[in-house]
């Protein structure tokens, strides 16, 4: 295989005819579409948006699992209530339920430390490094190709992180064609400043999730701190507020239908450039299976939470994440089926390959494309087993901690560059933070029930998918599984924070000799998990080598069609732009793009999830909306719709007006567009945002914080 490193700029030019509502653009692409931006209504300089070290993009940060933005010179950071929900949950107890009641810090001394593994990262560099990453990989295949890319990436990251406070990573664009070194300042001391009650921040809960009209005040305000020397530091009472290089100005004017809006954020993953076979697998197996498995976990947590308020609080954040994932996957499945995406992608791919056959590059590209498709087909053989074992590692607390400590003991004796990503010296602080937060997010009875749900399904897999080590730990029958879990969780001391800290700091030899029941289980599982990892790396290495051929063909074909070509999202900083737009959801059903507080009253039942707090209802009844109401209607806005191109990870992304002022916070997509991570449909794709007028009004008239509003530059009226 001959790697073809084509400059992204060539692909950028293909985007010039793109519609304003489509595209998660790299900042470096924006100057090439400056005319489009201006025509859409942007008043600023598109070239300035390409510079990550300048406002406004240097005010946009990756926080938790989503996005946030700085909104004051003293480090105030605004994001979604659901993005910061883990912080709220971490600080909640049965006798101090911040989830239900919300929180307003009386002063800076009252700001509450986030969970130890919660981070904010500010992108300060984004440099192309394709030649260096692929230098030793060319000519290799499979695991050797993967290892060459991995080694080069680790070397670059290690070199980059010599600078204090930086966290660096290597991101690929167009699935292995181009690579970029991402430099981010990591802020480790985040504190809770202002959070509305659940019945505001999550008004409507799962009933309204991914639905329009919405009436949620999905926002939370945090503050970032640094050490006395101004450098990133762990929490300490002696730390001082971080002073960002710039911060966004909250608009005092609102938005109306047809207004230009722009969003910057860190969208997670999109799959729009995947093969037809991958589209089919997503619709026919992966989405329905994932929904079924996650629903089992949701049922477990809800049942345990009904029996224990303490358990309900401990697992509130995990439950919220599960419910969100289930509904998103369900909506994605429905949307892909409604648009007949599998047939459409198959026909599109066939047309692309037919076009390729007429091109000079066909002889070099087609063999690689055929190999990639064969590898993708092979991945079906053990997909459910790997899904279940992946969830065992991600949806447990104590088991995940034991697996991490065991793996860390394996990796620590190696040279740091040879250690597995996620277990290098740079990662140990985060692992330790995860171990610490177990204390407030773990209940043995709940975890046993979660593992039972996963392993019961595993036991029902065909014998060919079983792994001897997994069977040894959990047994092959429900009775054996119950007995094994009683033994593991009944005997372990790993639930004690001091014991976890001791084992985290222990020598690899001491960890290896531990007779603690859950560490013995982790040690027994280790060979099976390593085999799965090795197989995946070999397959991923070949796909990383082969997919660029598919992408080169697809880009050429899209160019012929005059369509947009931008890299699939991969958690790197992207910009979308469009307008405040209504939604024609289906025949004779059209939705206006703004909601008002009247909708809160109309939905209110006094019971979860439509149990609006009495102070909110009283303020709505009083009707003091001066300075916040829509100037044309006099109504108090809550949320608004736009046609901005977003996906998971864009939660909390700032929505800016034509002048670059903050007018909204992205927090959701509509049900008709959940499938946009795979297939973009301009008829239905909408993003849902909290109107900043609603946030300001709540902070002024309902749960007042005049000092905070003054710091935000929008004093109380």
Automatic annotation (TrEMBL):
Cited Pfam families: Peptidase_S46 (PF10459)
Ubl conjugation among keywords: no
Keyword Glycoprotein: no
GO molecular function, one term: serine-type aminopeptidase activity
Keywords associated with the record: Aminopeptidase, Hydrolase, Protease, Serine protease, Signal
Enzyme Commission numbers on file: 3.4.14.-
SUPFAM superfamilies linked: Trypsin-like serine proteases
Region forming the signal peptide: 1-20
Family: Belongs to the peptidase S46 family.
Function: Catalyzes the removal of dipeptides from the N-terminus of oligopeptides.
Protein name stated in the entry: Dipeptidyl-peptidase
Gene source species: Luteibacter pinisoli
């Amino acid at each position: 295989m001959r790697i073809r490193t084509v400059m992204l700029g060539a692909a950028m030019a293909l985007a010039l005819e793109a519609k304003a509502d489509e595209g998660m653009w790299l900042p470096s692409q924006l100057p090439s579409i400056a005319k489009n931006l201006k025509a859409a209504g942007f008043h600023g300089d598109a070239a300035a948006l390409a510079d990550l070290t300048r406002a406004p993009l240097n005010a946009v940060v990756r926080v938790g699992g989503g996005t946030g933005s700085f909104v004051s010179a003293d480090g105030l950071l605004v994001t979604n209530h659901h993005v910061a929900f883990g912080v709220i949950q971490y600080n909640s107890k049965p006798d101090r339920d911040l989830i239900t009641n919300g929180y307003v810090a009386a002063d800076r001394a009252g700001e509450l430390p986030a969970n130890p593994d919660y981070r904010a990262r500010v992108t300060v560099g984004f440099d192309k490094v394709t030649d260096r990453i692929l230098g030793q990989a060319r000519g290799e295949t499979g695991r050797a190709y993967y290892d060459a890319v991995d080694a080069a990436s680790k070397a670059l990251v290690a070199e980059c992180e010599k600078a204090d406070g930086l966290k660096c990573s290597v991101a690929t664009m167009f699935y292995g064609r181009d690579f970029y070194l991402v430099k981010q300042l990591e802020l480790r001391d985040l504190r809770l400043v202002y959070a509305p009650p659940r019945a505001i921040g999550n008004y409507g809960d799962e009933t309204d999730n991914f639905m329009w009209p919405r009436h949620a005040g999905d926002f939370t305000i945090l503050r970032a701190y640094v050490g006395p020397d101004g450098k990133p530091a762990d929490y300490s009472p002696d730390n001082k507020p971080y002073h960002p290089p710039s911060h966004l100005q909250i608009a005092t004017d609102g938005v109306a239908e047809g207004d230009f809006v722009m969003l910057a954020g860190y969208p997670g993953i999109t799959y729009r450039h995947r093969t037809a076979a991958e589209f089919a697998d997503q619709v026919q197996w992966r989405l329905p299976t994932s929904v079924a498995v996650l629903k089992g976990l949701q049922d477990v947590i809800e049942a345990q939470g009904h029996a224990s308020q303490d358990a309900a609080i401990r697992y509130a954040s995990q439950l919220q994440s599960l419910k969100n994932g289930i509904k998103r996957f369900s909506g994605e499945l429905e949307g892909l089926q409604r648009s007949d995406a599998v047939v459409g992608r198959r026909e599109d791919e066939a047309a692309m390959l037919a076009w390729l056959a007429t091109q000079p590059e066909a002889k070099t590209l087609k063999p690689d494309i055929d190999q990639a498709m064969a590898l993708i087909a092979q991945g079906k053989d053990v997909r459910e087993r790997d899904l279940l074992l992946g969830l065992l590692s991600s949806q447990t607390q104590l088991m995940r901690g034991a697996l991490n400590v065991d793996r860390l003991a394996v990796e620590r004796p190696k040279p740091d560059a040879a250690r597995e990503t996620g277990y290098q010296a740079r990662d140990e602080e985060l692992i330790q933070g995860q171990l610490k937060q177990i204390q407030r997010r773990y209940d043995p009875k709940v975890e046993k029930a979660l593992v039972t749900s996963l392993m019961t399904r595993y036991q029902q897999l065909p014998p060919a998918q079983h792994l001897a080590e997994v069977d040894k730990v959990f047994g092959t029958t429900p009775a054996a599984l119950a007995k094994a879990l009683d033994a593991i969780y009944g005997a372990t001391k790993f639930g004690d924070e001091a014991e976890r800290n001791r084992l985290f700091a222990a020598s690899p030899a001491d960890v290896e000799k531990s007779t603690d029941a859950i560490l013995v289980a982790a040690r027994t599982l280790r060979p099976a998990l390593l085999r799965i990892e090795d197989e995946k790396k070999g397959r991923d290495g070949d796909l990383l080598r082969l997919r660029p051929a598919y992408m080169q063909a697809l880009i050429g074909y899209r160019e012929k069609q005059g369509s947009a070509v931008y890299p699939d999202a991969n958690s790197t900083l992207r910009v979308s732009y469009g307008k405040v737009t209504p939604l024609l959801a289906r025949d004779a059903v059209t939705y206006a793009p703004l909601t008002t507080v009247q909708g809160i009253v109309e939905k209110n039942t006094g019971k979860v999830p439509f149990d609006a707090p009495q102070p909110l209802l009283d303020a709505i009844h009083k009707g003091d909306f001066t300075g916040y109401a829509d100037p044309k209607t006099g109504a108090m806005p809550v949320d608004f719709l736009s046609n901005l191109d977003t996906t998971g990870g864009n939660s909390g992304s700032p929505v800016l007006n034509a002048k670059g002022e903050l007018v909204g916070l992205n927090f959701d997509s509509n049900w008709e567009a959940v499938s946009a991570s795979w297939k973009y449909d301009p008829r239905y794709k909408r993003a849902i945002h909290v109107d900043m007028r609603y946030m300001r009004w709540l902070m002024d008239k309902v749960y007042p914080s005049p000092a905070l509003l003054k710091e935000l530059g929008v004093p109380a009226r």
